[in-house]
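notes to self, project folder thing:

trying the whole complex as one job this time. last attempt i did each chain seperately and stitching them together was a nightmare. two parts in total, labels are on each line so i dont mix them up again. if this works i'll redo the older ones the same way
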Amino acid sequence: MVTRVALGTVFMVATLMIVSFTAIDEPARMAKFESGYEGRSVEAGAALYANNCATCHGPDGKGIAGRAPALNVADLYNGTRFREMGWGGTTRDYVYGAIASGRPRASAAFAEYPQRMPTWSREFGGPLRPDQVNNIVDFVMNWEETALLETVAEKPSDFVSVGLDLKDPVLPAGDVARGEKLTQTYGCVACHMNPDMNVAPGPGWPAKYYSGGVSIAERAATRFTAADYTGKATSAEEYLRESIVQTNAYIVPTYAANIMPVIYGEQMAAQDLADVIAYLQTIE
Amino acid sequence: MALFKLHVPILDDIKTKGWRSALVATVDQTVERITAGINVGEIRSILRGDAPQRPNPRVKPHADGFWMHMRPTFFHEQVMSLYPTFRLGWLTTYMLVFETITGLFLMLWYTPSPDIAYTNMLSLLSNVPFGLFMRDLHRLGAELMVMLVLLHMLRTFVTGSYKKPRQFTWFTGGVLLLLTLFLSFSGYLLPWDQLALWAVTIGASMAEATPVVGREVNLLVRGGADIGANGLLRFYLLHVFALPLIAFIFVGVHYYKVIIHGHSLPPGAEKVGEDTARKVPMERRMYFLPDVMTRELFWTVGWLALMVFMVTWGGWHAPLEPHADSQITPLHTTAPWYFLWLQGMLKLGDKVFFGVILPGILSGLLFVMPYLEVGPSRRYADRRVGLSIAALTVVIMSLLTFMGTPYYGVSSSPDQEVLTTLAPQTHPGLLRGTAYDELPVGDWVASGWNNAPSQGLQAVLQLYNKEIERYSDELVNAKGKMSITEIQAGLKQVTMQLEWEDNGAQASEPVIVYLHRDSGYEH
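result (full assembly):
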């Protein structure tokens, strides 16, 4: 019996030692497994990309003129592309959203790619499972390192945001037609061109969409001298600029604070802002 | 006026005996209560190795305690050595309890939904400390339990322990064998990877061939036309609730029968036709406390140490293949190993006869065998026919199991076989297991394996060449091409294509494998 008890104790101690060593190793092992399955996700994504995406986006993600834009380029990863759309999330979310839901219509920003991008995720009626869409996203994001290092031959990414100040930088001359397009891509029209005044989150721009019956162009010209005005603008252009980049400086009566996104100072370039202001001043 | 009196017995003792002996007496009493009858003095006597007094105080826990009431107070010393039981009955019971405990841990981290199950597996292995450890133990335990149950059945047959009066014990054992197999089968599906989905699809479709009830039973178990969300939920409920419940009930019945008849003695120890297992003379008794208990604990601890070793330093790990995909059937996918014999049988001919009728008859015979084989003697010399049949069955089952593997009778084209050996669809294989840096970019040919610039590539090309030579009759003048390119940072593409001559130049479909630096298949 003594041998049994002694040997049994030895086994018990050995088991506990092995379990302790495992415990010490666990964080490293778990991290390694996580990078392991991320690697396998890229592999699976590569196969799915080759079968589903390469015919339009090119086998190495460089795009095909007239069919689909390049993915393996810096402006997908440095935010240029989704800034034009006013996207608020991460690049990963942007790519996932594009793949999962597809692009139903040629967007204004991508008029040179007239065909629609199919819907891929089963969530929205497409053929792929959500984990397969994630695999493809991992594969596309794996181009990020090398894409950002590339010196792009076309226009370099020299985006400078217009910032929050009302006077600095001085805005260039605005292009009304471009401004009208930008109000669509930035999503302004969703709140400010809604015919139903009771539902619209923001004051309508045309006179017929505003309860006071005057258009934004007239309101901009008169409001900054009103008694209840709390902002700092000293001209119509400054008033419009302030209402876009410093959204809470003055809230129009019957509308609420903190509804309009405060992102435009960072997302818009000076020319964009100038174009939008020029367009707003032509609205009746 | 006191409203109530608080009575603390130890304070009385301290007053009469002094605090030291009062403390000793309290400890002694507490120990005796916890052990249901063994006080400290008796424990010390046990540990010293003293012979028990008469009447033996060490049988009290069996009368007074719940945990010990079903355990016999003594065993015949002839059944306590390794032969004749090899501890297999004890080990299988231990495995059932072990699987329950590890299974409870895993249940915390798992949801039986096809949308979530695989993510849960990844999460378990990357975010839960000891997740891999518990999963590997559970899987290893399951495989070992099936083997132990089969060995236990074989041992019971060989020693003739199924004979009168133990026929029903054998019958309940057969039920437990079936329950073990189905517990293992239902658990197989739960990770929801390719291996799980397709192994279970194969198993279920074998059962579907049963005439009359096959389709209906299958529909009931799957809850749908094929294995999806309903099937997974039902398999899960079977695995964690219904089957364990029935198993515990039958273990109770089985063990009860073992106890009331007594463990059968080795065949040579009794006169032919006698069963004296219950009448143990005083001098042949081995009491449960301490001798049997220390043996049981020893085996428990030893077996646990073995399993823990196997899943850590021994390197045994449960596999996790890619996410289940009902559109893609991996080539050479098989049923779980304990059903390979069925798959082998199916390759012999008609699926209803070989898949259902014959196995059904054989299993049925297995259950009722003790009621048919009624020879009185358990001695080996008197049971030559029976023992030969047992040996033959083992041989035939092994053969059928081999025939169930893809190595036998699977007809896909030689070029596909060659390329599948390099990049298997059921497990990582040699190519994926090669280190990332050992696969240099370039175009390579199988016949040039000797000049390969790295060890890893050489091993891969050597295997490629070996497989091509194996099929050299069909693949005449074959050239095995492999080209490796790096298509992204840390991602290589390996394209393999076979060219050969057969009424003109032939080329296989290219097989493309993507390998990422971090994917870690070599572990």
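what i see at first glance: Chain A touches chain B at residues 1-2, 4-5, 7-8, 11-12, 14-15, 18-19, 21-23, 26-27, 29-40, 42-44, 46-47, 50, 60, 129-132, 139, 142-143, 145-146 (CB under 8 Å).
need to look closer tmrw
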